[in-house]
Amino acid sequence: MSALRCDPNKKYVWRGCGIPQETFSFCGHDVVIQESIGGGGEAAIIWPAAIILGRYLEANKDKIVDRKVIELGAGTALTGIVASLLGAEVTITDTKEALECTSVNVHKNTKDVRHTPLVKQLRWGADLHLYPDSDHYDYILGADIVYIEDTFPDLLRTLRHLCDKDTVILLASKIRYERDERFFNMLRQEYDVRVIKEVKEDEVKIYKAILPRRDVAAMPC
Ligand SMILES: C[S@@+](CC[C@H](N)C(=O)[O-])C[C@H]1O[C@@H](n2cnc3c(N)ncnc32)[C@H](O)[C@@H]1O
After folding, report:
1. What's in the GO CC field (predicted)?
2. CATH number, domain at 199?
3. Which domain, by its residues, includes 90?
4. Which of 62, 114, 155, 219 has the highest Cβ tally under 10 A?
């Protein structure tokens, strides 16, 4: 079942039997996403936050061409696919169990991109050894990944591991419960965090987080 409400650029809706799929128009491409692959569950559904973050990237496409991007908790990978279609060098991640759905969608939709995306397992906290400290990412993306309170410390640890002083974190989130707000309060303890977009109909906000600038010129002597 799809979690979609509406998207003006969604082209077709699955209405029959067979494999549920949705087609979107992004950056002049048809992006065809298959849901319910593999174990199913929340990773095999397109969540509104993924579309909203994808549209945000599309509207800011000049910023991400040739940039190094990593997507966390990608699920059907709509956001990472859009980043890839826009010319970014993208690593698309999720848990090992969820990656079948991720892989199928990524490979189907990124045949003629500038940089072939990498699909790779990343369970927050546990798989950080697969991501060397020396790797730099310009953007860390996450759509609807703030929802299980037990994962918050590992998610924060993962962001800390992947982020450096030039990294921008973009998290699109539906705030469902008080605990989701608690995550962003935890995030504020380490990063400068701003809401850069809000889509009221879907109750989704895009948060931008960067490490605080320790600008020498601005420091008291
Ligand atoms: C609500 S889904 C969102 C999927 C996709 N980003 C979207 O918006 O359509 C949450 C995603 O986070 C992933 N996830 C949950 N816990 C995780 C963990 N501990 N480590 C890595 N990914 C996790 C799930 O597998 C799932 O793909």
Report:
1. cytosol; protein-containing complex
2. 3.40.50.150
3. 10-211
4. 155
Nearest CA to ligand 1 atom 25: 43
How many domains, in total, are found in the chain? 1
Residue 186 lies in a domain: yes
**Inside any domain, residue 157:** yes
In-domain check, residue 1: no
Report if residue 4 sits inside a domain.
no
Quick: pLDDT tens for 54-81.
999 999 999 999 999 999 999 999 999 9
Query: 9 with 23: CB under 8 angstroms?
Result: no
Residue 217 banded pLDDT, cuts 50, 70, 90:
low
- The residue whose CB lies within 8 Å of the most ligand 1 atoms, and thus the one to mutate among 2, 94, 204, is 94
Closest ligand 1 atom to 48 CA: 8
For residue 204 and ligand 1, the question of a CB distance below 6 A is answered with no
Convert the pLDDT of each residue in 78-126 to its tens digit.
Answer: 999 999 999 999 999 999 999 999 999 999 999 999 999 999 999 999 9
Instruction: Establish whether residue 76 lines the binding site of ligand 1, counting it when its CB lies within 6 angstroms of any ligand atom.
Output: yes
Predicted local distance difference test score (pLDDT) of residue 73? 97
Q: Which residues contact residue 197 at a Cβ distance below 8 angstroms, ignoring those fewer than 6 apart?
A: 52, 56, 205, 206
**For ligand 1, atom 12: residue with the closest CA:** 73
What's this model's pTM, rounded to 2 decimal places? 0.91
Whether the CB-CB separation of 115 and 89 falls below 8 Å is answered with yes
Non-local (6+) Cβ contacts of 36 within 8 A are: 19, 20, 44, 45
